[in-house]
Design goal:
CATH class of the largest domain: Mainly Alpha
Strand order of the largest sheet: 1-2-3
Number of helices: 15
Largest sheet: 3 strands, antiparallel
Distance between the termini: 53 Å
Structural class: mainly alpha
Helix content: 40-55%
CATH topology of the largest domain: hpI Integrase, Chain A
CATH architecture of the largest domain: Orthogonal Bundle
Shape: elongated
Number of strands: 6
Order of helices and strands: EEEHHHHHHHHHEEEHHHHHH
Radius of gyration: 26 Å
């Protein structure tokens, strides 16, 4: 399937009005799947896509419009994939929650992975869902332009749903074992795109964006550069989180990336950062200081990149930029504390490109 162009990665079901049947066209040939919108037509379409994903001739043994499976045969297991997903999401709504009760991003990532699964194999019995079916779902993700890494993570989430099924005796254990055989998409061997790695933003690109955004977005950029925070950490700040002293202000977060591991996250605000914070109301104890959504913040930055004609970057890249500066100025251990990393090698990962910048600076200045 890696050789297929994205535009031809998967066929599309269309209604054949004279007959009322579901019809697909593939490589110049047509296939009728049964009454449009019926369970039978959806199952036959899923079987067809599974064959395409496996590199098998999808028209083999299908002269009557069938794809090799008799839809009248009862499923081996009464639970459908859709029913398994419903059971898992009921569990996930309780498991993937922040301390304040809000659902985590991981829950929404699961719903994203479930969408193509339900579209292709929602009515498939869990016992009949195997590696070829999983690869067909993955190919649907490829056809929709998802990135390679996100596809691999989504496939992993689907496997976790089936593992949940095994754990709760909803799915035969051998089904999960079969799904574990599906290897991840490899870089350069799939049409799924790979997005560039995050790295410190070049100063000229940073300044070009700062000149094209609103004062609020500019302040958020500057605060991230000064503190090394993630955008989500910064935007959740309320006045009562900040302990104000004469020198450094400190905010303690209860909702952050590693909170479920029992880690404490503090943000430190020096004089420059304090001056920015004081532009905003600091007397609304439980209200968020910055009235902007994280996705809106990110879109504004990316739009400014386009307007400035510079390579696109997102607010999370600012954490890498701050990490490089903090490491060079204070060393790894101090940078680790400021960034909230529990391991030095993670700080080194964020600041890895600073070495090249130091070489360049030394060549020019000394």
């Amino acid at each position: 399937m890696a050789g297929l162009s994205r535009s031809r990665a998967l066929p599309t079901i269309r209604l054949h009005k004279p007959s009322g049947q579901a019809r697909i066209r593939w490589q110049g040939r047509e296939l009728y799947l049964g009454r449009h919108g019926s369970r039978e037509s959806q199952q036959r379409f899923a079987d067809f896509v599974s064959r395409v994903a496996a590199g098998v001739d999808p028209f083999a043994d299908s002269g009557d419009g069938r794809t090799g499976q008799d839809s009248s045969t009862p499923p081996k297991h009464t639970l459908s994939t859709n029913e398994l997903c419903v059971a898992f999401l009921q569990h996930a709504k309780q498991h993937y929650r922040k301390p304040d009760g809000r659902l985590t991003d991981e829950y929404h990532c699961f719903t994203s992975a479930i969408a193509p699964l339900a579209e292709l194999h929602g009515i498939t019995s869990v016992s009949d869902f195997g590696p070829l079916a999983l690869k067909a779902v993955r190919q649907l993700m490829v056809g929709r332009g998802w990135s390679r890494k996100y596809i691999n993570k989504s496939v992993g989430r689907i496997r976790r749903i089936f593992r949940f099924g095994v754990e709760n005796e909803l799915v035969p254990a051998e089904v999960f074992q079969r799904l574990s055989a599906v290897t991840p998409l490899l870089a350069g061997r799939t049409s799924a795109p790979d997005y560039p790695l995050r790295h410190p933003v070049a100063p000229e690109h940073l300044e070009a964006v700062r000149q094209r955004v609103t004062p609020l977005v500019r302040d958020l950029i500057d605060l991230q550069l000064l503190t090394g925070t993630r955008s989500g950490e910064l935007l959740q700040l309320t006045s009562n989180m900040i302990l104000r002293s004469e020198t450094v202000w400190v905010a303690e977060l209860t909702d952050h990336k590693t909170a479920h591991h029992g880690k404490l996250r503090r943000i430190y605000f020096g004089a420059k950062a304090q001056a920015i914070l004081q532009k905003y109301p600091l007397d609304r104890s439980d209200a968020e200081i910055f009235e902007i959504r994280r996705d809106t913040y990110s879109r504004n930055v990316k739009a400014a990149c386009v307007a400035a004609g510079v390579p696109p970057w997102s607010p999370h890249w600012l954490r890498h930029t701050a990490a490089a500066r903090l490491r060079d100025a204070f060393g790894l251990e101090v940078a680790q504390a400021l960034l909230g990393h529990s391991k030095l090698d993670m700080t080194q990962h964020y600041a890895g490109l600073a070495h090249a910048q130091a070489l360049e600076a030394a060549a020019k200045d000394g």
